[in-house]
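hey team, just a heads up i'm posting the complex here instead of the shared drive bc the drive is being weird again. everything in one block, sequence lines first with there labels, then the predicted structure for the whole assembly after. its two chains so it's a bit long, scroll down
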Amino acid sequence: MKRVYLDHIAGTPIRPEVLEAMLPFLQDKYGNAQSLHREGQEAAAALEEAREKVASLIGCQPAEIYFMSSGSEANNFAIKGLALARKDKGRHLVVSAIEHQSVLHAAKFLEKLGFETTLVPVDRFGKVDPEDVRRSLRRDTVLVSVMLANSEVGTIQPVKEIAAVCRENNIPVHTDAVAACGNIKVDVNELGVDALSLAGHQFYGPKGAAALFLRKGTRILPLIDGGIQEGGRRAGTEDVAAIVGLGKAAEIARREMDTWAAALRPLRDYLLRELPARIPHVIVTGHPQDRLPHHASFCVEFIEGEAMLLNLDMKGFAASSGSACTSRALKASHVLLAMGLDHAIAQGSIVFSLVNGVTQEDIDALLAVFPPVVERLRKMSPLYTQFLEGKKA
Amino acid sequence: MIYSEKVMEHFQNPRNVGVIKDADGVGEVGNPVCGDMMTFYIKVKDNRLVDVKFQTFGCGAAIAVSSMVSEMAIGKTLEEALKITNDMIAEELGGLPKNKLHCSNLGADALHAAIMDYKRKQEERKAAGEKEEKGKEEAPTAEEAACCCPYCEGPLEGLENYCTQCQVELVECPRCHHYTKKGEATCANCGAELAG
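-- predicted structure starts here --
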């Protein structure tokens, strides 16, 4: 059976050129980048080349790029490292209510050390109002973090305006750009942020390769102490192959992302339009315009996300959901709840995120397969029966 | 795949889905906040479950559990059916992932609730027949009392007065043996006063 992969947000396929660039560093080029011999220097040179490529993807200096093992590590490093470096100035953080758990839980960790966090709300499209950020600032605020794009609902945040508010108040600002970077144009100077997280598996690079941009002169405390790798800010032997893959993916994304977006956006728009037209009681989640070009997300009323995913998987489609049952923590998506959706509706979350190569035929096949799946599950659902009876009465 | 073959088979071909319009007993448990909701309908003849149907809002495990419970229950006497436990259901399904075990609790609870509903209706009928107006406010029996968290329906493993899922401390009601969040003045199930 043909598989149609619609789970970009969980991780993209690897581009063949990326794999090709990585392979030598898993085979003959095994040197440790910290070694002075030829093998080591070969690895060190490859790291610096990757650093330049990642830097040019987001318009910063290569020296402002720190390689990390994941987007979560980059977010943890930014939140904990920046806040702890400024703890003498104050102990107040501002983050949005729909941040990734790696930001929210890092903030929770800091709360145990005496920090306070203000969660900035979002509107029903999942958007933060920069004025809400302004209102939440205090004299002792030491860090603001608002994501560039949300992976569950695709909404792109007004980070530029938020950063301007922070700049006026002389507060450093971090943005989690993991879902955005490599898919839409990201320029750290245009955004005006001091720190930014990105990860390779969101733009056809390998998993386990990510980076934190940190503006020159920004103080940060390391999470991992040890050797002098990454300027002493992130100890540990570098995963040279993964970083080379990240560099290659950044180089390709910089060149091709406009072409990718131009191909995926019409398909996404088609899906956003057609799914609610073909299935009653389906809500589009996230912002109608300001959203990632590959991202279509919905809530299907009266049924639960995991049951939909299992059915779609059996029919050859890979998608994802923010329902409580799909999360191991069994908690409904904090993103959808923050947008004001109730628990029952949030449970019906389903996300289709397109990758390069998906065709109109694939989307049409999905649109043919999905309605009967929904109908079957609704027939089993007591909520749907209640709804129908309510309508009769 | 996170589920056993048996779970997937029941999920794909659930038995006994539906509503019994003139059911002798109906049991509804769960709510969308914790993810799953099940409604069981039963028909009883000569103290035996002659028909069981269900509707479920929930994940693959919740649907498979409902289907399995219905299959296990049909043909059993009420007493036998009340002895169906969450462990038996999970075992019949070839096991469930740890974080889905609460679905099997929910399945057993929904079936038992339908049976208790039937029994209550029988008693009411009997009472009406005898035209006896005894002030009826019996405490629910201990069998009815759930051994799971009333807020998330998760199992209370080991530490009976603490739900690890919701991270709340619980107190047991001396009257009906249901659990309620510590600090509440009355039992969330029967309304009895709680000590402390």
